[in-house]
Design goal:
213 residues; alpha/beta; Rossmann fold; nine-stranded mixed β-sheet
Length: 213
């Protein structure tokens, strides 16, 4: 998708649906269906990914980093699907300033907001997107389609733990090839990845690296 956005965020020009009166209702736009606060796409969202297997000694630090980022006003986007991603989402929603995008890997017709998501929608703190998907169950193909959409709206990525032998590492490589800004959680297990034009970030240096969208 050619968004025509400036460096700092996404241009909404050309979308067929704008801010609805009912944040819970499903609305259509040219990339699929959405619920919630559509303007979050314009705030330079940071894509957040984490592998399924993460060292136990890093989990709390990853959660603290995401809490810090959410509190700073940066919009966090993701599928929030892996075990750590789910924890990060739960940690972020505790922050009153948090603004989140949930990109689904299944059709919107098969998604029902839980109590927390419903509250976030009512508070205009959440955007839920199903990018041209109609499947009931999540598959690898639908995950990849979801992540292609993420590539079209996010210019910067945070990988809490890209598994060198897994899907998140492929996403990292693709993000670098696309000249995205790529950040990796700074941990001894990820130190070797910083040679690939990725930037190490932790709870000590994040303020110097990130700025709100």
């Amino acid at each position: 998708m050619n968004t025509g956005r400036p460096q700092g965020g996404l241009s909404l020009q050309g979308y067929t649906a704008m801010l609805p009166g009912d944040p819970i209702a499903v609305h259509s736009f040219r990339d699929g269906a959405y619920r919630g606060y559509f303007d979050l796409l314009e705030r330079d969202p940071l894509a957040v990914y984490a592998a399924r297997k993460v060292p136990a000694d890093a989990i709390l630090d990853c959660e603290q980093l995401v809490e810090n980022l959410a509190g700073s006003g940066i919009v966090l986007a993701g599928g929030w699907h892996s075990p750590l991603e789910k924890r990060l989402f739960r940690r972020a929603v505790r922050v009153p300033a948090a603004r989140l995008i949930h990109a689904l890997a299944k059709g919107m017709a098969f998604y029902r907001p839980d109590h927390t998501a419903g509250q976030l929608l009512e508070q205009r703190r959440l955007l839920i997107v199903a990018p041209r998907l109609s499947n009931r169950r999540i598959s690898q193909a639908s995950v990849e389609q979801r992540d292609r959409w993420m590539r079209s709206v996010c210019r910067r990525y945070l990988f809490c733990f890209p598994d060198p032998e897994g899907y998140t590492y492929r996403l990292l490589q693709t993000a670098l090839e696309d000249n995205k800004e790529v950040f990796i959680f700074d941990h001894p297990r990820t130190a070797g990845l910083f040679e690939q034009e990725a930037i190490g970030v932790n709870n000590r240096n994040w303020k110097a690296i990130f700025r709100p969208g």
